[in-house]
Each structure stands twice: as structure tokens, then as C-alpha cells.
Amino acid sequence: MARDWMHWNNNATVDLPIDRMMIGQVRTRSSDSYVPDSASTATAYSCGIKVYNGAIGIDDDVEPCGTVLEAAKAQGYKTGLVATSRITHATPASYVAHVYDRDLESNIALQEIGVGHPLGSVVDVIMGGGRCFFTPQNTTGSCRDDDIDALELARQRGYTVFGDRATFEEDVKLPYLGLFTQDHMSYDIDRDPAVEPSLTEMALKGINDLYKATKKSKKGFFIMVEASRIDHAGHANDATGHLHDILEYNRAMDAMREWIDEHDDSETVLISTADHECGGLTLGYELDGAPDYWFAPEHFASSHGSSGKYATLWKNYKSNDTSDATQYLKKSIYAPYGIMDPSEEEITQGLALQSSTSNFGRFLALAFSKRLKVHWATGGHTGVDVTLYGHGLNHEKLAGQRDNTEIAHFAAEQLGLDLEPITEKLRADREFVEKLVKKQPGDAARLKGRDLTHHHH
Amino acid sequence: MARDWMHWNNNATVDLPIDRMMIGQVRTRSSDSYVPDSASTATAYSCGIKVYNGAIGIDDDVEPCGTVLEAAKAQGYKTGLVATSRITHATPASYVAHVYDRDLESNIALQEIGVGHPLGSVVDVIMGGGRCFFTPQNTTGSCRDDDIDALELARQRGYTVFGDRATFEEDVKLPYLGLFTQDHMSYDIDRDPAVEPSLTEMALKGINDLYKATKKSKKGFFIMVEASRIDHAGHANDATGHLHDILEYNRAMDAMREWIDEHDDSETVLISTADHECGGLTLGYELDGAPDYWFAPEHFASSHGSSGKYATLWKNYKSNDTSDATQYLKKSIYAPYGIMDPSEEEITQGLALQSSTSNFGRFLALAFSKRLKVHWATGGHTGVDVTLYGHGLNHEKLAGQRDNTEIAHFAAEQLGLDLEPITEKLRADREFVEKLVKKQPGDAARLKGRDLTHHHH
Ligand SMILES: [Zn+2]
Ligand SMILES: [Zn+2]
After folding, report:
1. Is residue B209 classed exposed, middle or buried when 0-12, 13-18 and 19+ CB atoms within 10 A define those classes?
2. Which residues does Mg(2+) bind (chains A, B) (predicted)?
């Protein structure tokens, strides 16, 4: 979809930056389903093992597993985690935290900065969203369910803590924790660059800082960068949010490829893949049993924000006049999202769904997708293979059809890491395992009311 | 889907044979749509150019283009075409015929055996289905709209013509034309091995015969083998037909890989890909807005034929007794297709749709897919990338993300072919171009009533 949009927008057959780095495919099944979630797949990427959906940095017996990031740190490398989601979300979490349920993000936040973690603080660069899990309950916007001030605990452990654009652009001392939003960072198309850095900017800052910090060392660095919100736009069936986060991912990949080419001495390898497919997006639409062999990317030219942004805008609009509301819906919601010709039915539905951002958001997204002739199979994940990309030293050794667990084994081999002693060290700390990794008596109540589909991001 | 079925069926994480040959991805767009048909994509694979959907071996100006098969023949190689579709269908047709509309299969049949073709007979091995386009109108089962006996014309040009299993197993003299069915050959799961050879058997026979015929020559052979009906099962949204034709494709690929490994001296390269995706199949289902992270391949164990087979069986059942009909529907249609627990609604619908094989066939297929938790986006094609496989000499040079036109360029380079003189020779024959390639006055009537979705296979 993104490539076809670029073809249309540039009136030429241009490649996506990632096309030049395509080397294989990855199968993503977990230990308990052919259709995985991010926790099981990120654990496959971090520990190299199959585990159940929802599991963070553990095996199927709920015993912690050593990750490539932890092993890298233990063997003298510097380390980093960058994501556009909450930094406590499943993918970044699986590289350093160990817990039986991905939704325990208050617990994950502490492990990420080393609190209660048997190895202490193991991440030198942390950037992303999700400040809300680091501030005590009853402070503005907090998501925690206790009085712990995790930002203060991070400072005590030596972290420079920041969250503003100005500090981001400074030379921040390692280790650092940069959290730019309370919840996930914005979709790239909705992002205010004065407030939030882009994925590309965060990735390059992280890489450059880790490179400088290891220049005199025999060991280099390991960094995990996630374009997290491609998945979220997939769940929302929001083609516009999806497209622009994919384009930003491409810019980040291109920048990292260029960085590697300019730093031959760094002996760096870049490996990129998805943890799983989301949304089951295909191009071409079928209406009433008649398949249409057509995709219409030109509609993207008129679409200027995510469906979530316009759903919130619409919910916040207040008027008792139906005629005013209809005009607002057409001019300020449908038109800027790319729907120039709403039908009577779409107006009626739009007015009826105003109070629910999730229902109106998906209605809006699907109405637009129909015009693009983009089909979504689901608001969840699918079990199809994902594409594998590589660049730099030895990347060709990973080419071909792979199981997701092989990604971790490749990383370990390239860095000369041994995960086994890390696993043993984590498991030897029984207080850690029993109190932080395994299920606690109060957890049922703690997790109650969490959105079930959220559980499966 | 096929890999997960093998995992389930073998209670182990086995690879598909093709997994070991995975080397890249191919984008499939045509000159007039981001969602292609087989004619445009097969022409990309045969001539190395982009053309409109429906075009066979021509460019966008409806001028013929030289194909890799024609160039190979002209330069002293032996050639072959094997397909499980009618041999006049778009993919095999595009390697040797040249015509503005893929539905002109009477014309294509003649060009395939060299009648009216400026280069004469260029295919040494032809095997597949579609005898109906080779027999005169008014003979049993004929699809022709004239009195031409194309089988007799083939014999006059030196072809050994056959269509039975016994002759297939003999040492047939080249060139030969083996047509085993009037229409497409059967889906592999419905196939009677006493009547129809498998794709694997045809591929191996073709390769061995071409190898023997060129053993003393400095030139070798070029063969195009298509597992044609994977696509047809996709159009029908028939997971069972799809699965078993994919498994047979895997067996054929494995046999060809093994053949290459056992014939080092042959300097053979195997390249395999799809012309396009069909059906938009994804694993995991969403019902009433609730995504289910689950795929249930175990249902395949109880599914014993294609949806088309059971739809025909059901249409042919006669009874005036609703109770008898209901029993027959449950026991002889639903159960052997894998639906053990039809709902009241499914029984009612099944009874109501009996007279239409296409409507009942798709209803049956979708009811089963829902149990498998397999989602189909469409009964047509989609514009997503397809996977590229390779084995043997120099296959690694084609690895990575490719445009479909590059497949032809690679084949030409490997065989040392020059397509340009072939294109010139074809175009120099103006009678051929004006009478057989371009649109004729009678064609509108000739094509009238052809099924439009058929046009887009
Ligand atoms: Zn997700
Ligand atoms: Zn098709």
C-alpha cells in the first residue's frame, strides 16, 4: 500500500527504502496459537523461545529468560530501547522485563529502569511514550496503581530524565530516560514536531549516543527500535494512520542504513521485521460478490490525520443544531479525513455514533478504506508471515524463511552473546521470580476492566 | 495456512519444502491497475514488460513481444509448458501466444501449436487441461466457435497427441501435446490418479524428457510449470481445494529441487513465484467486531474434497422429500467437506441454494472457512506482494524485492537470450499482427456472455 502510494504520488515506479533491504520472511506463531500477540513474538525476538500470547520475557513455565539486551549489557555493550508506543508496551518490555502478563505495566516500568531487576539497570538509552506508568497514582494523568515515583527512582539510579523537545536536542548524559507523552506517542501524521521527536530522530539520537559512548570500547551497542503504532493503526483499520507510520518507518530504516554505510568501522548490522501482521490489509475490494481489481491510492492525498484524531474532534464538538452538526461533520471531519462525498447513510451514521470515539473511529476508517479499495480482515492480528529486512555486517546470513526465534539467535551470535548465564542469574533470584514475574494474589483485581483487545496488541 | 496445517498434522514444527527455497518477494502491479490479472503478470514474466490486465504476450500498443520461451527455442533450446488449468489459460498462453484479450482461447490454442504463429511450433512439451479448445465445434464438449480440428493440425506439425494415463507413462516422442481433461484439470484433492497425472508427475516427465532430448546439445531447456488451480480455489474461497493444491505445488517444488541436486551437470536454475495473490486469505477471524487470535487447521482433517465437487454433487441430488434432502445435505455434503455441526440456518440456506453451484459452493466454502477461522477478503485478486523461491545455478542473483518484469530479464540473462530479435520478427509479420493479435470485427459477439470474473483469473 505504501509503495503504491509512492508510485502514485511520484508518478513513477519508485521503491520503498525498505525494498532495497528485503532479505526474507518470518513466521510468527506463538506456543499457544497460530495467531500471535506482541508479547509472545517480542519474547521470541529477545529470548529466542516460543511462549504463550501475553507473556513478557519468560518461558511457558513462567520462569524468566535472559534476553539479548540483558546479555549484551552483561558482556560490556551499551544498550537502548526506542518505541513510539508506551515504553512499557509488550515489545520494548520483552527485552528487559519479565512478567506473566503484559498488562502489568506498572511492574514493567520499574523493571525497565532496574528496580527489583536481578541485573539492576541494563538499559542506557530509553525513549518513547508512556510517562503515565512512571508517575505516582493521584498525580495528573498517572496510570499507576501505587504511590511509587518511578521517575525519581530512575534519577536515583543515575538516569537523566526528560520529556521535552529542547532537552532531546541537547547532548544528554547516559543513561537517560526520555518520555515524551503520557500514553503512546502520536501517529506520525498527527504529531506536533515541536513537542514530540519523530521515530527517525529518536533512532538516530539513540544510535549516535550509543556509538559515541562505546567508541573507545572493544564492545559496541545493541538497540531495539520499534515503529510501534503501525500496529495500532492496523487495529483501528485506519489506512491513513497506517500509511504515514509506515512511511516514517521507511525514513527511519533509510537513515539507519545510511548511518551504517557512513560508519564502516562500527561493524553494525541492522535487522528489521514485524512481530506479526495486524489488520489483514489487502488491496482490492469486493462489494456484493463483485471483486474490483482496483486500488485507489489517490484518496490519501486528501487525508490529513488519523481516524482517531477526527473521532476525538467529533466527540468534542458541541451543538444542539442538527444542521450545524451535519455541516461540521462534513467540513471538519469527513473532508479532512479524505471523504469528500459522504452518502446520506454515512451522515446519519456519523451523527448517531458521535459519542463513541471507537465506534465512530472505525466507521470513519472503514468508509475511507472502501474508497481506497483497501480491505481489512480484522481489528486484530493475523497469522500470516511478515517480511524480513537486513543491512550491514553479515545480514545475508539471516536471509530466507525464518522462525521468529531465529532472530534472537542471530543477534546473540553476531554479538557473541551467551543467554544461558543470564537466564540462570534471573532464575536464581527467587524473590524476584515469585514476587514480580509470577501471578500475585491482587492481580486479578488489578487487571480487571482492562480492555481485552488491548491485551492482544 | 499450509505450513500450519503441516505443523498440526505432524505435531511438529516442520517446514514446507518451499520454505527452504524462499529468496524474495515480487510486486505484481500491471500497467493499468495496482491489482493485476494473470495475463498481465504472465506477460511480465514471459516478455519482461508491463501491460494492461487481460493482455497476452503483447505491449500496451497491442504489438506482440518476444517471450523467453520463444527466444529459447530460436536459440536452440528445447521448451515446455505444463499447467493444471486449460493450457490455453492466461499463464501458459502468455509464453507463446500473442492476443489482445485472454478470453480468445480458440485463437490461443492454434498459436500454441504454431498455427499462424510467425515462428511456427515453438513448444516441444505441452501438458495440461483444456482439450475443449482443440476440438471442432459441434463435437462433444468442444469450446471452439469454428470447425477447426486443432488436434489434427498439431499432428500435422509433428506433435504426438495424447490424453490418457497409459500413454503418459510411456516414452512419448517429442514434440508432444498431452491434454488430460476437456476443461481445467481437477483440484488435486478431487483428482482420479487413474485418469489425470499430478502436477509433480507432469513436471518431472516434462523435465526428464527435455533433459534427455538436449543431453547431446550445448543448449539445454526452458520449461514453465504452473500450479494453476491454487488461484481457482482462491476465487472460490475454498480453503480445502486451496490447501491441497498448495501441498501438491510443494511436492512438485521439492521434486524439482531434488532433480536439480541430482543433475549437477545440467546447470539448471529453478525460479518459482505466483503471478499475483488471490482471495486475500488471512488466518484469524473477526466476528461481530471481536477479533479471535486463533486458526484451527484441525478441521482440514475432516475435509475430503473441493467445495466445487460437493456443490455439483448437491445440485445433482434429486428428492422431493425435505427430510431426505436434509439428511443427504448433512451426511453427504456438509460432513465430508468438514462441517460436522451445521446450524439450522446453514441447513435452510443449503436447501435454498441447491440449484446454483456457484452460490452454494461459496456459501459452503465460507461456512467451513469460518470454522477454520480463515478470512477471505475477496473472490478476486489482491495487489499484495507474492513470495519468490529459487534453487540451483545463480538463483541467489535474483534474491530480494523484485518487480515482476525482472523475472523475465533474469531468465533471459541465465539462458543468454535476446528477446529483441524475436519481438522484431513477430511484429514484421503484419498479417499475423492484424488478424490474430489485434481486435477483430467479430470479437465483440465472440466474447459476449463470457463471465467477467472469469476474465480476471
Ligand atoms: Zn497489535
Ligand atoms: Zn485468478
Report:
1. buried
2. 89, 91, 226
